[in-house]
Amino acid sequence: MKKHLRWAGMALFSVTIMLLAKDKRARSSSSFNALLAQSPFAVVLFYNKSRENMKDKAIRQEIVDLEKMFRSLSNNPRYKGANLFFLRADVARDDIAKVAQDYNVKVFPTVQVFIGRQQIQGARIQGFVSRDQINRLIKTYLKSKIDTYLQEKDKALERELEQAKIRAYNRPYIYGPYGLYPYGYGYPYGWYNFYGPRYGFYYGW
Hints:
- By secondary structure, the protein is of the alpha/beta class.
- It has two domains: about 20-140, Glutaredoxin (3-Layer(aba) Sandwich), CATH 3.40.30; about 170-205, no CATH class.
- The chain has seven helices and seven strands; from the N terminus they run αβαβαααβαββαββ.
- It has helices at about 1-20, 30-40, 50-55, 55-75, 75-80, 95-100, 130-170, and strands at about 25, 40-45, 85-90, 110-115, 120-125, 170-175, 200.
- The chain has a five-stranded mixed sheet with strand order 1-3-2-4-5, sandwiched between helices.
- It is elongated and about 65 Å long.
């Protein structure tokens, strides 16, 4: 019973993680701030998809490849489990350009790590970076915090599974004289009705 509940809980947890998209795109300063507030951690890609850049074939391909790599990183199960957002911020939008200026981002692309709405000083890399470089950046500045977050999440899941077990052991039900059928003849003595079903609590399986 306990093992089955644990498997069910873990399965639900896994499905939930798969359904939660962690790749986000900020379209304004308000959406940028709102998205940062939704997650304990975020990795933000400031980049420039200006018309001029997208006209240049070589630069356009670099931008496309960078976006594709950045989105694929968001599918990492550990990052999803930690609710780590991968947030794309295109400074070709005037509102986003102002956000970049507020965080003193002057080179594009730049990848910056945030905790909540606070940027981590020094936790940024510039240029058309690789997947390994971003992974190292995350490991350097967020590994311990992600570990703690995941441990707390596991403990919360264990508590929920224990509560589910208690609810299953004590659920109300209706049964007949043989303990299996919802209706049937009751016992002809005591306080039970002769023909009616009776209510009770079930302890165990």
